[in-house]
Design goal:
Low-confidence stretches of chain B: 358-364, 372-376
CATH architecture of the largest domain in chain B: 3-Layer(aba) Sandwich
Strand content of chain A: under 5%
Distance between the termini of chain B: 34 Å
Helix content of chain A: over 70%
Largest sheet of chain B: 6 strands, mixed
Radius of gyration of chain B: 24 Å
Largest interface: A-B, 20 and 27 residues
Number of helices of chain A: 12
Helix content of chain B: 25-40%
Mean pLDDT of chain A: 87
Largest sheet of chain A: none
Structural class of chain A: mainly alpha
Radius of gyration of chain A: 23 Å
CATH class of chain A: Mainly Alpha
Number of domains of chain B: 2
Low-confidence stretches of chain A: none
Shape of chain A: globular
CATH topology of chain A: MetI-like fold
CATH superfamily of the largest domain in chain B: P-loop containing nucleotide triphosphate hydrolases
Strand content of chain B: 25-35%
Order of helices and strands of chain B: EEEHEEEHHHEHEHEEHHEEEEEEEEEEH
Number of strands of chain B: 20
Oligomer: heterodimer
Chain lengths: 283, 376
């Protein structure tokens, strides 16, 4: 018996082999390189100068350049995430309680935009939001416009919400679809009105889905650079734009430093959220 | 006794299929009532209408004389123990039981006191901090009962709560439920398809079939005086033969006239005659009122179960006397072993053991259990 288990384990290890090599070459090694570049100068000598530059660099008007960019990225990403959560949570709930047929159709509808490349989707939003775009011609015919939208923070948020919305719905939906419907009946039976059922049973049980939804929307929207360039007309320089800009300008070490700081902050944030969720689970 | 719940002419269909067909039922204070019937008879739907999870298509539901048709479940003074318990997996034992109290904004000290009292009632003291997912089936069951009782409802509804437990545990829980009901004085409405469970626990048994109530009575009444062939067959084993009531206390069946104790039937009225297998006495062939050939003998520990062919009709007899297959025997019936029932739509459908075998019985039990699960 023991022999057989060992055999099985070695088969499992062998099956993991190809991915292991892949992960090592394209995830672990690059991460080491990011850290290495972040703490070295152009002649690969150890330095913390890149780090200090991120926190201390000021622009001509005296504001902290990169801290401000980071703050702006965080703000837009958090706003987008909150909008995705507020819109996505009810959708996920209704979806999970619909008939099997309706669920299939709606899931497909939600997924269809994901089949298109995200660059193309962002371009589509440009043509919609432009001053002479589709939305403004529509508003003009209705006598409501024109409205200046492109190049505003709002346009960037719209782009982020549109691109990352499915990533909020799907994890919440998959948790809710597995939830035992009798639990809702039990809560109602024990004195909860609809709000009480949501607050005391459905929401706490859906927390793992909410957390993974937040993770999957917040992280890509914090580090995005393309959406802000196209829909913000380059006026809202985000942290992703900063990394790309430094990289293109061949400042690899400073680009790595910004990326490294961003990763550390995100990891710390995720760890905090996980801890909060775990503690919340048994009150 | 005070009437707590009154169902009046309740009708309910799902997708055009009638599940409850004009049900009327009174439930009294401090009563242990069991709704008994095969799967699909409408017993669970009746329970869900009382709880408020389903609305009747027609008919009224009264709670202490007040029409509660429009009252949602959370405003009804009735709690449910669900078939699979439906405990909240994100809460520990204590918080599961405290759940309804927290909803009512009861103070912490009072919650502590009431939950402790409930844990004691269901013998789970010391389990406060345990995760409900780490408990055994029987322990989860107790938590579910404590949670449903902690806010002292007038009525506790139990939807096949013992179905998922093994036989030994089920027997213990039957006794314990009965004790809890006595100790709290709360009315229990218990749904089951297990007739033995219904007989051993209840003050009142309601036998249901095809969306209609077949009989309401004490366990002894239901067993001894079944109203029709369905009830006679569903509760215990029965030989049901066609007979003719000649006059009061005289009935003819199987080509013989018998003395019986039943009165009030029409002269020469066609009736169903029920004889319980344990009420048949075996005598030597020449002394028998009826004569037959033994076709099978099964040893069941306490007694033998034998099948006897009497003029082509197969009788089941339970006896402690040993007889052999192919032996000719006579049978003797005391007047009070014979029970007469009016003819009903169920006449001729039950009570003949010609296709009987234990295996077949177990098979259909397993089917019923599988169906009950699907019904969920």
């Amino acid at each position: 018996m023991k022999q057989k288990n060992n055999g099985l384990a070695s088969v499992q290890r062998a099956a993991l082999g190809p991915y292991g090599v892949w992960a090592l070459l394209f995830i672990v090694v690059p991460l080491i390189f990011v850290a290495y570049y972040a703490f070295t100068d152009n002649s690969f000598r150890f330095t913390t100068e890149n780090m200090t530059r991120f926190f201390t660099a000021r622009s001509a008007n005296g504001t902290y350049t990169y801290l401000l960019i980071f703050w702006r990225s965080l703000k837009l990403a958090v706003i987008s995430t909150i909008i995705c959560l507020l819109m996505g949570y009810p959708v996920a709930y209704i979806l999970s309680r619909a008939s099997a047929r309706t669920q299939k159709i709606l899931i497909t509808l939600i997924m269809i935009p994901m089949w298109m490349n995200f660059l193309i989707r962002t371009y589509a939003w440009m043509t919609i939001l432009q001053d002479t775009g589709i939305l403004n011609s529509l508003l003009r015919t209705l006598g409501l416009g024109p409205l200046h939208m492109i190049g505003t923070e709002g346009a960037v948020v719209v782009g982020m919400v549109y691109d990352y919305f499915p990533y909020m719905i799907l994890p919440i939906y998959s948790v809710m679809a597995k939830m035992d419907l009798k639990l809702e009946e039990a809560a109602r039976d024990l004195g909860c009105n609809s709000w009480g059922v949501l607050r005391r049973v459905i929401f706490p049980l859906s927390l793992p889905g909410v957390i993974s939804g937040i993770t999957m929307v917040l992280i890509p929207s914090i580090s995005t650079f393309y959406i802000s360039q196209k829909l913000g007309n380059g006026k809202f320089y985000l942290i992703g734009d900063a990394i790309e800009g430094q990289y293109v300008a061949n400042n690899l070490h400073f680009a790595a430093a910004i990326a490294f700081i961003l990763m550390v902050i995100l990891l710390a944030g995720m760890a905090l959220m996980q801890r909060y969720a775990n503690r919340k689970a048994y009150v | 006794m005070r009437k707590i719940i009154e169902l009046k002419n309740i009708t309910k269909s799902f997708d055009g299929e009638v599940v409850l067909d004009n049900i009327s039922l009174d439930i009294y204070d401090n009563e242990f009532m069991t709704l008994l019937g095969p799967s699909g008879c409408g017993k669970t739907t009746t329970l869900r209408i009382i709880a408020g999870f389903e609305q009747p298509d027609q008919g009224e539901v009264y709670f202490l004389g007040e029409d509660i048709a429009a009252l949602p479940p959370h405003k009804r003074n009735v709690n449910t123990v669900f078939q699979r318990y439906a405990l909240f997996p994100h809460l520990n034992v204590f918080e599961n039981i405290a759940f309804p109290l927290r909803e009512k904004k009861v103070g912490n000290a009072e919650i502590q006191e009431k939950v402790t009292e409930m844990l004691k009632l269901v013998a789970l003291t010391g389990f406060e901090k345990r995760s409900v997912t780490s408990l055994s089936g029987g322990q989860q069951q107790r938590v579910a009962i404590a949670r449903a009782l902690v806010s002292k409802p007038k009525v506790l509804l139990l939807d096949e709560p013992l179905a998922a437990l093994d036989l030994k545990l089920r027997k213990d829980m039957q006794q314990e439920l009965k004790n809890i009901q006595k100790a709290t004085g709360i009315t229990f409405v218990f749904v089951t398809h297990d007739q033995e469970e219904a007989l051993s626990m209840s003050d009142t048994v309601v036998v249901m079939s095809e969306g209609r109530i077949q009989q309401i009575g004490t366990p002894i009444d239901i067993y001894n005086e079944p109203q029709n062939a369905f009830v006679a067959d569903f509760i215990g084993e029965s030989n049901i033969v066609n007979g003719v009531m000649l006059e009061d206390r005289k009935v003819r069946f199987s080509g013989h006239v018998f003395d019986c104790v039943d009165i009030g039937f029409g002269k020469n009225e066609a009736v169903d005659v029920v004889i319980r297998p344990e009420d048949v006495d075996i005598v030597p062939e020449e002394k028998g009122m009826l004569k037959g050939t033994v076709t099978s003998v099964t040893f069941l520990g306490v007694h033998y179960e034998i099948i006897v062919d009497i003029n082509g009709f197969k009788w089941m007899i339970q006896t402690t006397d040993f007889v052999d297959v192919d032996e000719r025997i006579g049978i003797y019936l005391e007047p009070d072993a014979i029970h007469i029932m009016k003819k009903s739509e169920y006449s001729g459908m039950f009570g003949d053991y010609s296709s009987f075998s234990n295996e077949f019985d177990e098979l259909s039990d397993a089917e019923a259990a599988a169906e009950a699960e699907e019904e969920e």
